[in-house]
Amino acid sequence: MNYTIQIVEDNEQNVFVIEQYLKSFSDIIIIGVTSTVLDTYNCFLEQKPDILLLDIELGDELVFEFLELIKPQAELIFMTGFQQYAIKAIKYGAKDYLLKPILEEEFKLAIEKSIKNIQAKASSNHLLVEERFIIENGTSIHYTILKDIVYLKAISNYTEFHFTNNKTIATSRTLKFYADQLPTDVFVRIHHGFLINLYHLQKISLDKDYSVILTGSIHLPISFRKKTSLLSKIKSFKFFK
Hints:
By secondary structure, the protein is an alpha/beta fold.
């Protein structure tokens, strides 16, 4: 089994050292190196790494700003030259707090502990997104798994389901009906015409007009009224790794 890791560090030399240390782990894949809060946020949403290696001071920013935007279930290993952030890091769920310069032996022990934690969670967790859901469209009944639904689209008083295999199912129920039926932990209204599955959220565009990018490079608009509630929901979304 392979494990993915995201490096959050704004010092190139430190990144180089970390990459050298990680070469001894054949099952670790580096999926991104980021140095700002926004880049870290978007990379995390798109890649959903198993482990986050977090420098705390990123220029004028603190990595805690990223952790406030989204409370990831990934293994958090903090790396810093400052002891004063230790208590705050623990409050955010730090599994390890490594002081720079980072010793290779301490680094490897932290990675090994994170891998063991991931394995333990994988064997015990039954995610809500694996549960089944029934869709009736008048002529037939469809049984699906929640994680296979990417988003729902309102078409007048009808609703269209869009799935990971590009399949669609149209029903005579309203989008509001399904918004009330589907688990609010996973599905959130981003617009009067769209209900998305947060499990498939890959990126939020912060341009003039807010939008989301879902699995399959699907772009959908976020209405002004729904922006705050969406960001709030993301913070508590427990199915991010």
